[in-house]
Write a structure and sequence with these properties.
YojJ-like (1; 307 residues; alpha+beta
Length: 307
């Protein structure tokens, strides 16, 4: 009987140590590479100074510590509110995932197709996908849309001449909630200086929430994806589809990417339909509605959306 009680006590002691170790490890992982790391180091230095003051019997400093210590907890909550919110939301998302989700998964293939279009045209774009944490604050900062998510709508919004191309679009399931939204910029000091405002805004919104941000660079056409305050750069279309599938915990079947119809194929198509283009010596490429012809008779390289 004593052996059983002793073994039970040892087991609970080991379990207690393991839980404390896991909590400490998760806290270190949480603050690594964030602005909380130097702040925590500064907090530790202040704690050591207070401890030395108490040992040295510094009466005034000890009085100050005794009166300020009850408010330190509230100060820590204010200072580390972003990190605390991120950890709690991550925990809640994991619990929700364990419960399972019986709702039908939404299709985000239009985002992949639009990212491919923007990449080929070097059109800057920022698309934010809402998950568990609501983005109402950021939606209200932009222009309300509440429209069905589609490839054509994304292509229209981010057209350089469009009035809503600046800012981010926020997507809620299969709805495009708002466009031209303002997002918080990341203040992480370790970010590369090569990252512009669009990329920093994408990292900032994923630091504050559990959202997913898809970014297309206006300078290089490179596709990036930000999740949890971290960014993956220079993704291919296939890699973007795989990463979205992984983060959304669903299977996204491969979709045929849009391709440009060449002049020869276009000529044959036009001859079959009996149509011709007057006033130009060269036939233009087959393009979607709304594309413009350039001065040499060729169409802009806007892609045709697959059926």
């Amino acid at each position: 009987m004593q052996l059983t009680a002793q073994w039970s006590r040892v087991s609970f002691t080991v379990l207690d140590i393991l839980l404390v170790a896991i909590i400490i490890y998760q806290v270190l992982v949480m603050i690594r590479g964030t602005r909380a790391a130097p702040m925590l180091a500064g907090l530790a230095a202040v704690a050591v100074a207070f401890y030395l003051a108490r040992i040295g019997e510094l009466i005034t400093l000890n009085w100050l510590v005794n009166h300020l210590l009850p408010y330190v907890v509230f100060a820590l909550i204010v200072v580390f509110q972003s990190e605390i919110r991120h950890v709690l939301s991550d925990l809640g998302r994991r619990v929700s995932f364990l419960r399972g989700n019986s709702a039908e998964a939404d299709s985000y293939d239009d985002i992949v197709l639009a990212a491919n279009l923007f990449s080929q045209h070097q059109t800057g774009a920022l698309m934010v996908i809402e998950r568990e944490i609501g983005l109402r604050t950021y939606i209200e900062s932009g222009v309300a849309m509440d429209a069905k998510l589609s490839y054509d709508l994304l292509a229209t919004i981010f057209r350089p001449s469009a009035p809503l191309h600046d800012g981010a679009v926020i997507i809620q399931k299969d709805r495009l909630a708002a466009a031209a939204c303002f997002l918080p910029l990341s203040m992480n000091p370790i970010l590369s200086t090569q990252l512009g405002t669009r990329h920093r805004a994408a990292i900032g919104i994923t630091e504050e929430t559990d959202a997913i941000a898809v970014i297309v660079s206006e300078e290089t056409g490179a596709i990036s994806m930000a999740v949890g305050g971290k960014i993956e750069r220079d993704l291919t279309i296939e890699q973007l589809r795989d990463r979205l599938s992984l983060e959304l915990q669903r299977y996204m079947s491969p979709v045929a990417l849009p391709t440009v119809v060449g002049p020869e194929e276009d000529s044959s198509l036009e001859s079959m339909h009996g149509s011709s283009i007057h006033g130009s010596s060269v036939h233009g490429s087959s393009i979607r509605s709304g594309a413009q012809l350039t001065s040499d008779g060729d169409a802009d390289s806007e892609l045709e959306r697959p059926l």
